[in-house]
Recover the amino acids of this structure.
C-alpha cells in the first residue's frame, strides 16, 4: 500500500482562499433584518433569516418571508436548503427542499418551512436564521429527441434498485 504525502500548508484553512468569487446584487426589503451571510470561511450556504415571528404546530407548514431580494447573473441559481441544526434538533425542514431561485426572479425570497415534529411546536422569532442559500452555476440544456437512449450499467432500474432493497425470495 502506498501513501501519498502532501506538504504541510495553511492554504486549506486560509480565509483569504475563500473570498467571494461572484457578485450578486442584493436588495434588503426590511432594514431590521441582517443580510445573508456566511457563518464561517469555506461555508457553502449563506444564512437567511425570518422577517416575521411564526409558530409552526406539529405537521404545520408556512411560507416565511426573509426580507431579501436578489438579482443573480444568468447561468446561476440559488438553492435554498434547510439548516442542519434546526432539522436535527427541532425537525424544521423545507417542503420543496432545495427551493430554487431562478436568475430572472426579483421578488422577495420566501421559504416554505415545515415542522416535522409530531409533538412540539416550533417558535421562530424575527431575525432567526431559518435556511441557507447556496449559489451555484447551472447549465442550460438543449433537449434532443431520439428514438432510443444508449445503454448504461443501471439501465431502467428505478427507486431502490441499487440499494439492496430487492424483494427477498
Amino acid at each position: 500500500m502506498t501513501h501519498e504525502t502532501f506538504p504541510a500548508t495553511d492554504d486549506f484553512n486560509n480565509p483569504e482562499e475563500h473570498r467571494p468569487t461572484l457578485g450578486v446584487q442584493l436588495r434588503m426589503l426590511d432594514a431590521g433584518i441582517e443580510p445573508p451571510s456566511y457563518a464561517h470561511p469555506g461555508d457553502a450556504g449563506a444564512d437567511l433569516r425570518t422577517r416575521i415571528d411564526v409558530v409552526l404546530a406539529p405537521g404545520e407548514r408556512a411560507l416565511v418571508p426573509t426580507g431579501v431580494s436578489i438579482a443573480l447573473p444568468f447561468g446561476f441559481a440559488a438553492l435554498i436548503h434547510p439548516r442542519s441544526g434546526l432539522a436535527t434538533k427541532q425537525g424544521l425542514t423545507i417542503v420543496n427542499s432545495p427551493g430554487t431561485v431562478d436568475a430572472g426572479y426579483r421578488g422577495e425570497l420566501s421559504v416554505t418551512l415545515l415542522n416535522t415534529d409530531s409533538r412540539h411546536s416550533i417558535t421562530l422569532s424575527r431575525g432567526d436564521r431559518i435556511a441557507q442559500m447556496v449559489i451555484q452555476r447551472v447549465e442550460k440544456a438543449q433537449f434532443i429527441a431520439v428514438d432510443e437512449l444508449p445503454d448504461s450499467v443501471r439501465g431502467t432500474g428505478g427507486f431502490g434498485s441499487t440499494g439492496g432493497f430487492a424483494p427477498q425470495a
Remarks:
- The domain at 23-137 is CATH 2.70.40.10 (Deoxyuridine 5'-Triphosphate Nucleotidohydrolase; Chain A).
